[in-house]
Amino acid sequence: MGKFGKKNKVSENIPTSALPDIIFMLLFFFMVTTVLRDQEILVEQKIPQATQLQKLQKKTLISYIFIGKPKNTSLYGTEPRIQANDALMNTTEIVQWVNQERDKLPEADRGGITISMKVDKDVKMGPISDVQTELREADARRVLYASVGKVVKD
Amino acid sequence: MARKKNRMVQEVNAGSMADIAFLLLIFFLVTTTIASDKGILNVLPPKVDPNVPPPDIKKNERNIYTILVNANDDLLVEGEYRDNANGLDKDVKAFVLNFGAPDEEAVALYNSLPASLQAEAKRDPESSDHPKEAVVSIKTNRGTSYEKYLEVLDLVKKAYFDIYATRANLSTDEYRALSGKDDAEQALIDKGKEGIGMQISIAEPDKLGAN
Question: Smallest CA–CA separation between A127 and chain B, in Å?
Fold first, then answer.
Protein backbone atom coordinates (compact mmCIF):
# COMPACT_ATOMS: atom_id res chain seq x y z
CA MET A 1 0.00 0.00 0.00
CA GLY A 2 2.71 2.35 0.96
CA LYS A 3 4.45 1.62 -2.26
CA PHE A 4 1.60 3.01 -4.33
CA GLY A 5 1.40 6.16 -2.34
CA LYS A 6 5.05 6.86 -2.93
CA LYS A 7 4.80 6.40 -6.67
CA ASN A 8 1.86 8.78 -7.02
CA LYS A 9 3.73 11.54 -5.34
CA VAL A 10 6.66 11.33 -7.74
CA SER A 11 4.84 11.91 -11.04
CA GLU A 12 2.12 14.26 -10.00
CA ASN A 13 1.76 16.32 -13.17
CA ILE A 14 2.59 15.77 -16.82
CA PRO A 15 5.25 18.11 -18.16
CA THR A 16 3.52 20.35 -20.70
CA SER A 17 6.54 22.38 -21.62
CA ALA A 18 7.00 20.39 -24.85
CA LEU A 19 3.40 20.90 -25.90
CA PRO A 20 3.96 24.24 -27.66
CA ASP A 21 6.78 22.67 -29.66
CA ILE A 22 4.51 19.91 -30.90
CA ILE A 23 1.79 22.37 -31.79
CA PHE A 24 4.29 24.61 -33.53
CA MET A 25 5.49 21.67 -35.57
CA LEU A 26 1.94 21.02 -36.76
CA LEU A 27 1.50 24.72 -37.34
CA PHE A 28 4.54 24.93 -39.57
CA PHE A 29 3.40 21.89 -41.53
CA PHE A 30 0.10 23.52 -42.34
CA MET A 31 1.73 26.87 -43.03
CA VAL A 32 3.99 25.28 -45.59
CA THR A 33 1.34 23.19 -47.31
CA THR A 34 -1.31 25.86 -47.31
CA VAL A 35 -2.39 27.77 -50.36
CA LEU A 36 -4.54 30.69 -49.42
CA ARG A 37 -7.56 30.87 -51.65
CA ASP A 38 -7.23 33.97 -53.73
CA GLN A 39 -10.37 33.35 -55.66
CA GLU A 40 -13.84 32.25 -54.91
CA ILE A 41 -15.10 29.34 -56.95
CA LEU A 42 -18.41 30.24 -58.49
CA VAL A 43 -19.17 26.91 -60.13
CA GLU A 44 -19.73 23.46 -58.70
CA GLN A 45 -16.63 21.35 -58.49
CA LYS A 46 -16.96 17.63 -58.08
CA ILE A 47 -13.68 16.52 -59.58
CA PRO A 48 -13.85 13.14 -61.34
CA GLN A 49 -11.63 10.22 -60.43
CA ALA A 50 -8.92 8.66 -62.53
CA THR A 51 -5.99 6.32 -62.02
CA GLN A 52 -3.29 7.51 -64.41
CA LEU A 53 -2.51 10.77 -62.69
CA GLN A 54 0.57 12.73 -63.55
CA LYS A 55 2.16 15.62 -61.76
CA LEU A 56 3.58 18.58 -63.51
CA GLN A 57 7.12 19.62 -62.80
CA LYS A 58 6.63 23.35 -63.01
CA LYS A 59 3.63 24.61 -61.14
CA THR A 60 4.11 28.17 -62.30
CA LEU A 61 3.13 27.18 -65.82
CA ILE A 62 -0.35 26.14 -64.77
CA SER A 63 -3.39 28.33 -65.22
CA TYR A 64 -6.72 27.14 -63.94
CA ILE A 65 -10.03 27.09 -65.67
CA PHE A 66 -13.13 25.90 -63.85
CA ILE A 67 -16.16 24.49 -65.57
CA GLY A 68 -19.36 23.45 -63.91
CA LYS A 69 -22.89 24.34 -63.00
CA PRO A 70 -22.99 27.76 -61.32
CA LYS A 71 -23.54 27.66 -57.58
CA ASN A 72 -25.78 30.69 -57.77
CA THR A 73 -28.33 29.32 -60.19
CA SER A 74 -30.77 32.18 -59.78
CA LEU A 75 -28.17 34.59 -61.11
CA TYR A 76 -26.28 32.54 -63.67
CA GLY A 77 -28.69 29.78 -64.69
CA THR A 78 -28.16 26.03 -64.57
CA GLU A 79 -26.12 25.51 -67.71
CA PRO A 80 -22.41 24.81 -67.16
CA ARG A 81 -20.31 27.95 -67.12
CA ILE A 82 -16.63 28.66 -67.37
CA GLN A 83 -14.73 30.42 -64.65
CA ALA A 84 -11.23 31.78 -64.93
CA ASN A 85 -9.64 33.96 -62.29
CA ASP A 86 -12.58 35.17 -60.22
CA ALA A 87 -15.29 35.75 -62.76
CA LEU A 88 -17.45 33.73 -65.07
CA MET A 89 -16.77 34.25 -68.72
CA ASN A 90 -17.99 33.29 -72.14
CA THR A 91 -16.29 30.85 -74.44
CA THR A 92 -15.24 33.64 -76.77
CA GLU A 93 -13.19 35.35 -74.07
CA ILE A 94 -10.91 32.38 -73.50
CA VAL A 95 -8.37 33.37 -76.14
CA GLN A 96 -7.91 36.75 -74.54
CA TRP A 97 -7.64 35.23 -71.09
CA VAL A 98 -5.01 32.72 -72.25
CA ASN A 99 -2.96 35.53 -73.76
CA GLN A 100 -3.14 37.46 -70.50
CA GLU A 101 -2.03 34.41 -68.54
CA ARG A 102 0.78 33.77 -70.97
CA ASP A 103 2.04 37.32 -70.64
CA LYS A 104 2.43 36.78 -66.91
CA LEU A 105 4.98 34.04 -67.48
CA PRO A 106 8.65 34.68 -68.15
CA GLU A 107 9.39 34.79 -71.83
CA ALA A 108 11.24 31.47 -71.99
CA ASP A 109 8.33 29.53 -70.48
CA ARG A 110 5.52 30.93 -72.57
CA GLY A 111 5.38 27.99 -74.93
CA GLY A 112 4.88 25.56 -72.08
CA ILE A 113 1.75 27.10 -70.62
CA THR A 114 -0.55 24.41 -69.30
CA ILE A 115 -4.23 24.85 -68.69
CA SER A 116 -5.54 22.81 -65.82
CA MET A 117 -9.18 22.11 -66.52
CA LYS A 118 -11.09 21.56 -63.33
CA VAL A 119 -14.33 20.22 -64.64
CA ASP A 120 -17.33 19.04 -62.70
CA LYS A 121 -18.36 15.41 -63.19
CA ASP A 122 -21.79 16.29 -64.47
CA VAL A 123 -20.66 18.50 -67.32
CA LYS A 124 -21.22 17.10 -70.81
CA MET A 125 -18.59 16.97 -73.52
CA GLY A 126 -20.21 19.76 -75.55
CA PRO A 127 -18.99 22.74 -73.52
CA ILE A 128 -15.63 21.08 -72.94
CA SER A 129 -15.09 20.61 -76.62
CA ASP A 130 -15.96 24.27 -77.19
CA VAL A 131 -13.37 25.29 -74.62
CA GLN A 132 -10.77 23.04 -76.20
CA THR A 133 -11.44 24.55 -79.61
CA GLU A 134 -10.76 27.98 -78.12
CA LEU A 135 -7.61 26.74 -76.43
CA ARG A 136 -6.37 25.43 -79.75
CA GLU A 137 -7.17 28.82 -81.22
CA ALA A 138 -5.09 30.46 -78.49
CA ASP A 139 -2.31 27.93 -79.05
CA ALA A 140 -2.37 26.75 -75.43
CA ARG A 141 -2.45 23.11 -76.29
CA ARG A 142 -1.19 21.50 -73.12
CA VAL A 143 -4.20 20.57 -71.08
CA LEU A 144 -4.34 18.86 -67.72
CA TYR A 145 -7.64 17.26 -66.85
CA ALA A 146 -7.57 17.71 -63.11
CA SER A 147 -8.71 14.58 -61.32
CA VAL A 148 -8.32 12.84 -58.01
CA GLY A 149 -6.93 9.40 -57.42
CA LYS A 150 -9.16 6.38 -57.62
CA VAL A 151 -8.67 3.26 -55.58
CA VAL A 152 -8.33 0.44 -58.05
CA LYS A 153 -10.14 -2.74 -57.23
CA ASP A 154 -9.11 -5.82 -59.09
CA MET B 1 15.28 44.38 -3.66
CA ALA B 2 17.01 43.59 -6.90
CA ARG B 3 17.55 40.03 -5.86
CA LYS B 4 13.90 39.59 -5.13
CA LYS B 5 12.82 40.94 -8.54
CA ASN B 6 15.15 38.61 -10.35
CA ARG B 7 13.62 35.63 -8.69
CA MET B 8 10.13 36.66 -9.76
CA VAL B 9 10.94 37.00 -13.47
CA GLN B 10 12.94 33.85 -13.48
CA GLU B 11 10.71 31.89 -15.84
CA VAL B 12 8.19 33.05 -18.39
CA ASN B 13 4.84 31.41 -18.19
CA ALA B 14 4.80 29.20 -21.26
CA GLY B 15 1.47 27.57 -20.54
CA SER B 16 -0.51 29.84 -22.82
CA MET B 17 2.00 29.44 -25.63
CA ALA B 18 0.22 26.27 -26.68
CA ASP B 19 -3.08 28.13 -26.83
CA ILE B 20 -1.65 30.79 -29.11
CA ALA B 21 -0.11 28.14 -31.33
CA PHE B 22 -3.40 26.25 -31.38
CA LEU B 23 -5.21 29.35 -32.51
CA LEU B 24 -2.82 29.80 -35.41
CA LEU B 25 -2.96 26.11 -36.18
CA ILE B 26 -6.73 26.12 -36.41
CA PHE B 27 -6.62 29.17 -38.65
CA PHE B 28 -4.33 27.40 -41.09
CA LEU B 29 -6.29 24.18 -40.85
CA VAL B 30 -9.40 25.99 -41.95
CA THR B 31 -7.86 28.01 -44.73
CA THR B 32 -5.71 25.24 -46.12
CA THR B 33 -6.34 23.49 -49.39
CA ILE B 34 -3.61 21.02 -50.03
CA ALA B 35 -2.76 21.82 -53.62
CA SER B 36 -3.64 19.01 -55.98
CA ASP B 37 -2.08 19.71 -59.32
CA LYS B 38 -2.58 16.20 -60.48
CA GLY B 39 -4.44 15.13 -63.53
CA ILE B 40 -4.36 13.54 -66.91
CA LEU B 41 -2.15 15.36 -69.34
CA ASN B 42 -3.37 15.78 -72.87
CA VAL B 43 -1.93 17.74 -75.73
CA LEU B 44 -4.49 19.18 -78.12
CA PRO B 45 -3.84 19.21 -81.85
CA PRO B 46 -2.76 22.50 -83.43
CA LYS B 47 -5.50 24.67 -84.79
CA VAL B 48 -6.66 24.06 -88.30
CA ASP B 49 -5.44 26.55 -90.85
CA PRO B 50 -8.31 27.17 -93.29
CA ASN B 51 -5.84 27.91 -96.11
CA VAL B 52 -4.09 24.59 -95.82
CA PRO B 53 -6.16 21.60 -96.82
CA PRO B 54 -6.08 18.79 -94.27
CA PRO B 55 -3.42 16.25 -95.10
CA ASP B 56 -4.67 13.25 -96.93
CA ILE B 57 -3.92 10.41 -94.61
CA LYS B 58 -4.28 6.91 -95.85
CA LYS B 59 -4.45 4.59 -92.96
CA ASN B 60 -5.61 1.08 -92.82
CA GLU B 61 -8.74 0.51 -90.82
CA ARG B 62 -6.99 -2.23 -88.89
CA ASN B 63 -4.46 0.26 -87.51
CA ILE B 64 -7.12 2.40 -85.89
CA TYR B 65 -8.75 1.32 -82.70
CA THR B 66 -12.02 3.18 -82.57
CA ILE B 67 -13.84 3.87 -79.36
CA LEU B 68 -17.16 5.64 -79.70
CA VAL B 69 -19.07 6.94 -76.72
CA ASN B 70 -22.62 8.11 -77.23
CA ALA B 71 -24.81 10.50 -75.29
CA ASN B 72 -26.00 7.67 -73.04
CA ASP B 73 -22.40 6.86 -72.09
CA ASP B 74 -22.61 3.56 -73.99
CA LEU B 75 -19.48 2.40 -75.73
CA LEU B 76 -18.89 1.03 -79.17
CA VAL B 77 -15.42 -0.45 -79.23
CA GLU B 78 -14.27 -1.64 -82.65
CA GLY B 79 -17.89 -2.08 -83.69
CA GLU B 80 -18.86 -3.98 -80.58
CA TYR B 81 -21.30 -2.66 -78.03
CA ARG B 82 -20.20 -2.44 -74.41
CA ASP B 83 -22.09 -1.01 -71.51
CA ASN B 84 -19.01 -0.34 -69.39
CA ALA B 85 -15.36 0.37 -69.93
CA ASN B 86 -14.00 -2.50 -67.85
CA GLY B 87 -11.11 -4.33 -69.46
CA LEU B 88 -10.63 -1.68 -72.11
CA ASP B 89 -7.02 -1.17 -71.05
CA LYS B 90 -6.19 -4.82 -71.70
CA ASP B 91 -7.76 -4.67 -75.15
CA VAL B 92 -5.91 -1.50 -76.07
CA LYS B 93 -2.66 -3.03 -74.88
CA ALA B 94 -3.26 -6.11 -77.00
CA PHE B 95 -4.07 -3.88 -79.97
CA VAL B 96 -0.91 -1.79 -79.65
CA LEU B 97 1.34 -4.80 -79.21
CA ASN B 98 -0.26 -6.85 -81.94
CA PHE B 99 2.61 -6.74 -84.49
CA GLY B 100 0.38 -8.01 -87.29
CA ALA B 101 2.66 -7.00 -90.14
CA PRO B 102 5.86 -5.50 -88.70
CA ASP B 103 8.39 -3.84 -90.98
CA GLU B 104 12.13 -4.09 -90.39
CA GLU B 105 12.20 -1.37 -87.78
CA ALA B 106 9.27 -2.87 -85.93
CA VAL B 107 10.93 -6.27 -85.87
CA ALA B 108 13.93 -4.67 -84.17
CA LEU B 109 11.55 -3.01 -81.73
CA TYR B 110 9.83 -6.32 -81.10
CA ASN B 111 13.14 -7.99 -80.36
CA SER B 112 14.03 -5.28 -77.87
CA LEU B 113 10.86 -5.81 -75.84
CA PRO B 114 10.91 -7.80 -72.64
CA ALA B 115 9.53 -11.31 -72.91
CA SER B 116 6.32 -10.50 -71.06
CA LEU B 117 5.44 -7.93 -73.70
CA GLN B 118 6.49 -10.16 -76.57
CA ALA B 119 3.99 -12.68 -75.32
CA GLU B 120 1.25 -10.10 -75.87
CA ALA B 121 1.87 -10.04 -79.61
CA LYS B 122 -0.92 -12.06 -81.16
CA ARG B 123 0.07 -11.30 -84.76
CA ASP B 124 -3.56 -11.00 -85.70
CA PRO B 125 -3.77 -9.76 -89.32
CA GLU B 126 -7.02 -7.97 -88.46
CA SER B 127 -5.38 -5.83 -85.78
CA SER B 128 -2.58 -3.24 -85.84
CA ASP B 129 0.53 -3.72 -87.97
CA HIS B 130 2.96 -2.49 -85.35
CA PRO B 131 2.99 0.05 -82.49
CA LYS B 132 4.18 2.93 -84.68
CA GLU B 133 1.14 2.55 -86.90
CA ALA B 134 -1.35 1.92 -84.14
CA VAL B 135 -3.67 4.80 -83.29
CA VAL B 136 -6.35 4.79 -80.65
CA SER B 137 -9.24 7.00 -81.63
CA ILE B 138 -11.75 8.23 -79.10
CA LYS B 139 -14.86 9.90 -80.37
CA THR B 140 -17.52 11.26 -78.11
CA ASN B 141 -20.84 12.94 -78.49
CA ARG B 142 -21.62 16.41 -77.19
CA GLY B 143 -23.93 14.72 -74.73
CA THR B 144 -21.36 12.28 -73.39
CA SER B 145 -20.57 12.95 -69.77
CA TYR B 146 -17.10 14.26 -69.00
CA GLU B 147 -16.71 11.55 -66.39
CA LYS B 148 -17.11 8.78 -68.97
CA TYR B 149 -14.76 10.47 -71.40
CA LEU B 150 -12.13 10.78 -68.72
CA GLU B 151 -12.62 7.16 -67.71
CA VAL B 152 -12.01 5.98 -71.27
CA LEU B 153 -9.01 8.27 -71.75
CA ASP B 154 -7.68 7.10 -68.42
CA LEU B 155 -7.86 3.45 -69.47
CA VAL B 156 -6.19 4.08 -72.81
CA LYS B 157 -3.40 5.96 -71.04
CA LYS B 158 -3.12 3.08 -68.60
CA ALA B 159 -2.54 0.67 -71.46
CA TYR B 160 0.36 2.74 -72.75
CA PHE B 161 1.81 3.39 -69.32
CA ASP B 162 1.69 -0.33 -68.58
CA ILE B 163 3.75 -0.99 -71.68
CA TYR B 164 6.21 1.79 -70.86
CA ALA B 165 6.57 0.67 -67.28
CA THR B 166 7.25 -2.94 -68.24
CA ARG B 167 9.95 -1.81 -70.65
CA ALA B 168 11.56 0.39 -68.04
CA ASN B 169 11.31 -2.43 -65.51
CA LEU B 170 9.19 -0.44 -63.10
CA SER B 171 5.67 -0.67 -61.80
CA THR B 172 3.15 1.55 -63.58
CA ASP B 173 2.84 3.86 -60.61
CA GLU B 174 6.58 4.24 -60.35
CA TYR B 175 6.85 5.01 -64.04
CA ARG B 176 4.20 7.70 -63.90
CA ALA B 177 5.88 9.29 -60.90
CA LEU B 178 9.03 9.86 -62.94
CA SER B 179 9.37 13.54 -63.59
CA GLY B 180 12.52 13.66 -65.67
CA LYS B 181 14.18 16.08 -63.29
CA ASP B 182 17.54 14.40 -63.64
CA ASP B 183 19.24 12.45 -66.38
CA ALA B 184 18.68 9.05 -64.80
CA GLU B 185 14.92 9.59 -64.63
CA GLN B 186 14.82 10.99 -68.13
CA ALA B 187 16.70 7.95 -69.39
CA LEU B 188 14.11 5.67 -67.81
CA ILE B 189 11.27 7.63 -69.36
CA ASP B 190 12.90 7.44 -72.77
CA LYS B 191 13.56 3.76 -72.38
CA GLY B 192 9.86 3.16 -71.85
CA LYS B 193 8.65 5.39 -74.64
CA GLU B 194 11.20 4.65 -77.31
CA GLY B 195 9.56 3.62 -80.55
CA ILE B 196 6.06 3.40 -79.07
CA GLY B 197 4.43 6.79 -79.20
CA MET B 198 1.26 7.47 -77.29
CA GLN B 199 -0.92 7.96 -80.32
CA ILE B 200 -4.33 8.86 -79.02
CA SER B 201 -6.60 10.72 -81.33
CA ILE B 202 -9.50 12.57 -79.81
CA ALA B 203 -12.07 13.39 -82.43
CA GLU B 204 -14.32 16.39 -82.22
CA PRO B 205 -17.63 15.36 -80.63
CA ASP B 206 -20.59 15.03 -82.93
CA LYS B 207 -23.87 16.74 -82.30
CA LEU B 208 -26.28 13.85 -82.71
CA GLY B 209 -28.92 13.62 -80.04
CA ALA B 210 -27.57 16.35 -77.81
CA ASN B 211 -27.86 20.06 -77.38
Answer: 8
